[in-house]
Structures are given as structure tokens and as C-alpha cells.
What does this fold into?
Amino acid sequence: MIYKEKNKLKFTSGENIFFTSDTHLGHANIIKYSNRPFESVEEHDETIIKNWNEKVGPNDIIFHLGDFAFGSEKKWKEYLDRLNGKKYLVIGNHDWRNLTPGVCQRFEEVSQQMNINIEGIHIWLNHFPFLCFSGAWKGLSASWQLFGHVHTSPYADTGLDHQRLVNLFTTQFDVGTDNNNFTPISFNEVKEKINVQMMSLGMHRN
It folds into this structure.
């Protein structure tokens, strides 16, 4: 069930909820900038679209945390029409020029920041990682912050900001496509990863 409480999206179950960021569809130079393993922008785009649709169903919910695509309004509409799910966009630094009324209508909601609650967990959704955020200090009941932008990767230090990320809280996680095998990540997968991070400090949340 999904409902709104004081402008906050609240979900009683995390099933069928996904996150991603920094897909940069149509952006040929991102292959070089982020060392993405593709020979062409066509291969890049088709792989990301295929991975998305294999994981996210038509009625699932997916939060995209910014830097969705490059190109014209027509190109954005073509990408959005090919991708499964009920899509929410948190605006990234590359998205502003493309947020026309026709593009925004293809999202459930478009915002600079989202504040959601899933299974009682308070989650901030932002394009950028924050140094501090509300509720980060609450131990086992701490808020999460999910983000993109930094283009980190489990295989290489691809992001220019990677050295600064040693200061992240255990309840922060990069849902960017580079960090998740160019595939959206589910709420349950994020929860497992954050639990691992918390356990590294002797904490655990069921």
C-alpha cells in the first residue's frame, strides 16, 4: 500500500520498489568519463534499458535519483516510453534543460528531493550524497540517504569524489548504475547492503 502523510510518500511494503541513478542515456562521453564497459552509446543505452526492464515490472515503482538522459525532449520521451515501472525523478545536475511539461508528465512525480518511508524506515532521496541529514544519528532507527552523482564502482575508483566518500554514514548508499552493475537495485537489496555496513560497526537492523 502507498499513501501520503504530510507530503511524504509512505509504503507499508518494500516489495516491488527499486532505485537507480545516473543512467546518462544518450551520453556518449559518459562511457569514457566513468570507464563504462561499452563500445558505443547504442550498446550502452540498450544494455541499461534491457537490464531495467528485466528487473522492473510495468506496475513496479522506481525512483531515479537524477541524470537520467541527454538529448532532446523527443529522445527523453522515447526512453521513458521504453522503460517499465511507475517512475519518480529526483532532479540531477544534468536534467534541468530537459524538464519540459511533456517529459514531466511521464513521471509520477519530479522533485529536487524526496522524503519517503518504507516499512517504517525514513529515507532521504537526493542526487548528491550529504555530509549530514536529518535522523542520521539515531542508531538502529537512523534515517537512510540514497544518492547518485558520484559514479562510484565496486570494481574501480571511477568517481572523482571517491576519496571523500570515506565520510559516509553506514545508512548512506550509492544507488547509481555504475555501482550496481548497470541495473536498478531493489529496496530489499539496499536494505541488505545497509545492514552489512551497519554490522561493520556492530549494529544491525532487521
